[in-house]
Design goal:
Number of helices: 6
Number of strands: 0
Largest sheet: none
Structural class: mainly alpha
Shape: elongated
Radius of gyration: 21 Å
Order of helices and strands: HHHHHH
């Protein structure tokens, strides 16, 4: 019978070593873009591979790999969210680039989003509410918080999948010792 218990000390070491750089590369303002999701899955799979290499016998279940991927995803997602928040705060208040953000947001809300909603048949009161709420400071902050939370959730899901995939690849490569 195979154990699905994870020895967390080496697992956390491998996850931390890979999650922090992956989180930095997966932040919203990173040039990696959408490939950050794939990068997070690869980091979680790699953490599982590093963990399994140090274990005797070298065996892991898919569930244990998913748990290591979950930890990698939590660490990476929080790193990405913190990096994004700190970068936006620094650019707005220390580098005084708030006009760039505000102009971009006004353009996005007034021209693109409202036109798309109108062409999709969204009712007029909803569009009017969006035109007044979204450009407000609360609307901008809420929208950015929602985007950062969505990024963190997506990174977490991809990391769990990557951890499970890494465990699956390791079970094919190395059969259990009887």
């Amino acid at each position: 019978l195979f154990r699905s218990i994870v020895n967390w000390k080496p697992a956390l070491r491998a996850a931390l070593m890979l999650a922090v750089p992956a989180g930095l590369l997966c932040s919203m303002l990173s040039p990696v873009g959408i490939f950050g999701l794939i990068w997070m899955a690869v980091a979680a799979a790699w953490a599982v591979v590093l963990y399994v290499r140090g274990q005797r016998p070298a065996w892991i279940t898919v569930g244990a790999g998913a748990r290591i991927g979950l930890v990698t995803g939590v660490l990476g997602a929080w790193t990405a969210a913190a990096t994004t928040g700190i970068t936006l705060f620094t650019m707005r208040f220390f580098f005084h680039q708030s006009k760039v953000f505000d102009d971009f947001w006004q353009n996005l809300v007034s021209q693109q989003m409202v036109q798309q909603w109108a062409s999709a048949g969204v009712d007029t009161p909803t569009i009017a509410y969006a035109k007044t709420w979204l450009p407000s400071p609360e609307g901008r902050a809420g929208s950015m918080l929602g985007a950062i939370l969505f990024l963190a959730a997506a990174l977490l899901l991809f990391a769990v999948a990557g951890g499970a995939l890494g465990a699956r690849m390791m079970t094919r490569a190395r059969r259990p010792q009887v």
